[in-house]
Amino acid sequence: MEIEKIIIGENTKYPLNGLLTLPENITEPVPAVVFVHGSGSSNMDEKVGQLTPFKDLAEGLANKGIASIRYDKRSFAHGLKMVRDKSTIITVKEETIDDAILATELLKKDSRIDSHNIFIIGHSMGGMLAPRIDSEGGKYKGLIIMAGTPRKLEDVMLEQNEAVLSSTKGLVNWIVRKQVAKLSGLFSGLYELSDEEAKKKKVMGGTTLYYFKEMGEHSVADYLATTKKPMLIVQGEKDFQVSVEKDFNEYKRLLNDKTNVEFRLYENLNHAFVNYLYGDILKAKQEYNTERHIGEEVISDIADWIMKNV
To answer: How far apart are CA 162 and CA 260, in angstroms?
Structure first.
């Protein structure tokens, strides 16, 4: 395995440090993947607590003949600069999509990469966005969606908060209840707002209601309905951030007439595709703070699926 430092968007306002991971002793162009982060600010390994999902996948795939590119998320590397930039209202396009496409273009220019066999691996919100990134310029050979959801982001956020609410008591319950009520109020009538109205209403930090409105108006289901590309959709059975019933099974329902899609549900794995410890959203910090690594079964399934579709 060989690892090279790269920069995504080197001559742009928001250059990002990244790594290109290559199989050893390349004698002909190899297939490759672009990793796309979940929500929040993440480094190139998608580090959460003591877990590094993208690092695990990159190294595992390289050992099976597949290159990859990963990079710091724009909000991780330039979060404050993005918020202070009054010329742009942040959406997932500025936060995620543009950089994924730049990373893809970098791969396509590398003679060691088979430019006709580049895939996208989107995790969590990156999985939600993968079909849109493909449509808006990624032009991948196939899509791998890990712990994604075809639902709207605000619906998933509210559900996660309500799960916390139902598991708490006393002062914590009161605080969470206030938070849920505030979010519900903000999201109520979201799609009746004009773009300008949505841009003026803050949800948290530098995020406006327009972030959710713009994303929601680009329906995941619509992209899934039109793509004919191979897709692999995977989830851990013990994932408490997205739901087997409401998310994994909804992908199955939406795609049940397509022969280009495969599904994998992994027993005892959580949102990061490592063995679960608690399976409880209230213990998320503890869940991710014990070092574990993505197992061979997940890496082999992804690698085999890629090689089958090359």
So the answer is: 35
